[in-house]
Amino acid sequence: PSPLPVLYQDPWLIAVDKPAGLLSVPGRYSDRADSALSRLRLTLPEGAFLQPVHRLDQDTSGVLLLALDADTHRQLSQQFAQRQVAKTYQAIVVRQVCESSGLIDLPLWGNPTQRPRQQVNWQQGKPSQTRFEVLHREGELTRIAFYPLTGRTHQLRVHAAHPQGLNAPIWGDRLYGHGEPGQRLHLHAQTLQFTHPHSQAAILINSAVPF
Known about the structure:
Radius of gyration: 17 Å
CATH superfamily of one domain: Pseudouridine synthase I, catalytic domain, N-terminal subdomain
CATH class of one domain: Alpha Beta
Structural class: mainly beta
Number of helices: 3
CATH topology of one domain: Alpha-Beta Plaits
């Protein structure tokens, strides 16, 4: 497996550019052992601490942040849990979206009988909010910036595709839209901004959009 591009590194944390199609962490079975975490482990001394502080879907590319010690992991995880981390994603959706910007507020629930699909459920769903901004329209496609205020599984994919959301599935989404086999999901984690747990500096990590 090829090494991952490093976007930021210091003694406490490392951010890499995860390609689409690669798991963030290893799956349960041996055929899903290749992941961003396992590839990074190969570059570190045996037994060194390395833990991701968030996850990206296998089909999503972009900034993935990992901690190099337990205290940093705890502090960064807390920032994610308390919604103090600002995230920007870029996507291409299949529909010409007329609104220039807005807020999607649809509660999400993971139906145990339909894993890994998430669905909008007003009774059992967890609150999920996404701000969006249209960047460019071309034919039936719209390039969009997403600013998730919560971090639910598949949040941006459902909020894009659902009739009460954008009603415009992300291009290449075979789970919530009509992606062709072999076509990538056009969803990229572009920026991550957080407070460095040791220096208290504002850190902004940026990954170039590959589509």
